[in-house]
UniProtKB/TrEMBL annotation:
Its cofactor is FMN. GO terms for molecular function: FMN binding. This is Putative flavoredoxin. Keywords: Flavoprotein. Residues 9-155 form the Flavin reductase like domain. Transmembrane segments: none annotated. The lineage of its organism: Archaea, Methanobacteriati, Methanobacteriota, Methanomada group, Methanobacteria. The keyword Glycoprotein does not apply. Belongs to the flavoredoxin family. PANTHER family: FLAVOREDOXIN, FLAVOREDOXIN-RELATED-RELATED. InterPro entries: Flavin_Rdtase-like_dom, Flavoredoxin, Split_barrel_FMN-bd.
Length: 162
């Protein structure tokens, strides 16, 4: 027996990841998101949905580049912090270690075991959020989670989710 649930429902669980980016003056920022999905085999494309009011929004719109940093359960407080303060008011990455990405101009968040370097190929606004479609140019993975064939052993990664 099924009854109507509210259409306000989201698909759950959703992964909680950190999106990092760099503005045209070289200032880095990062925010947490839950609205993310794989959308293409070849090229590999990931979509992320960001409200236009987020400070990161204009950075990604202008630079056309972002990094998807996979967060683990151990990073819950960092994800809360990056998802509740704005780069408009503070340098959120001041005490968070980063490394420059290789193929794009953005920071990788070191504490995240997997980082996807992405370049925006399209942007749509189907509803409240702008959806950035990013082609995956490079993937970095902590060697302890890499299989011999360079695939990622996701079973070993304790992904943070809702
Ligand atoms: C777990 C979590 C998930 C979030 N998911 C999204 C999301 O999918 N899209 C979005 O625009 N904001 C999302 N937010 C809110 C932003 O991370 C938050 O507003 C952040 O402070 C924006 O930072 P910025 O202004 O520096 O860009 C989420 C926050 C948290 C804690």
């Amino acid at each position: 027996m099924k009854k109507d649930a509210t259409t306000n429902s989201f698909i759950n669980p959703e992964p909680h990841v950190i999106i990092s980016c760099r503005d045209k003056d070289g200032r880095d920022n990062a925010l947490s998101i839950g609205f993310i999905a794989n959308v293409s085999f070849n090229p590999r494309i990931i979509m992320i949905a960001i409200l236009h009011t987020r400070y990161s929004h204009h950075i990604i719109k202008e630079s056309g580049e972002f990094v998807v940093n996979i967060a683990t359960e151990e990073l819950k407080s960092e994800v809360e912090y990056l998802g509740s303060t704005s780069g408009r008011d503070t340098n959120k990455l001041e005490n968070i270690s980063t490394t420059d990405a290789t193929l794009i101009n953005a920071p990788l968040i070191d504490m995240c075991p997997v980082n996807f370097e992405c370049r925006v190929v399209e942007c749509l606004k189907p509803g409240t959020h702008d959806v950035f479609f990013g082609e995956v140019l490079k993937v970095h993975c902590d060697e302890k989670y890499l299989n011999n064939n360079k695939s990622i052993n996701w079973d070993k990664i304790n992904i943070l989710h809702s």
